[in-house]
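hey m, so remember when u said the tokens were messed up on ur end? i reran from scratch. heres the input so u can diff it against urs
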Amino acid sequence: MSRVVLGVSGASGAMLARDCAAGLSRLGVEIDLVCSPMAARTFELELGPDALAHLTAKVARRHTPDDLGATIASGSHPVHGMIIAPCSMRTLAAIAHGLDDNLLTRAAGVQLKERRPLILLTREAPLTLAHLRNMTAVTEMGAIVLPPVPAFYLKPQSVGEISAQIAARAIDLLQIGPAQAQAWSG
């Protein structure tokens, strides 16, 4: 069974984390979850008071961000990779500069040092030069920056369809099972 770390930062886009967890669960992937304090607040604001509890019910383990002794803080603990959905610019900057100051950024740093997939669903617009440079830095380190941009050519009918497609693309980038995202058919 594959294990994946799902990180959730406080940027807008809680439904992206929800949809990543649902997609990973459908594949039978064991999920280790770590949420920043602002992620919990954003979940409640965007999806309702019970949304984070529903997400937590889909995971094997939930780690607190201050638990730097958690298994996912070590490269010797085998996981297939990590998705951070959504990824705030603060979290991106910390990863880009090696600031492993909480479990979310430490687990991301572990993926990079172990050469495992790290998928960042970065959320901000417009982007500053600092954001762009941080995106370049993490890309040079081996991460994949996947801004949650809709695939308009698929003619989505709802925000939910858009989020599910973006989550599926992130999961596909981990290469842990059959393709989940709807492909362009020409």
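this time it looks ok to me. The radius of gyration is 15 Å. if urs says something different then somethings off w ur setup not the seq
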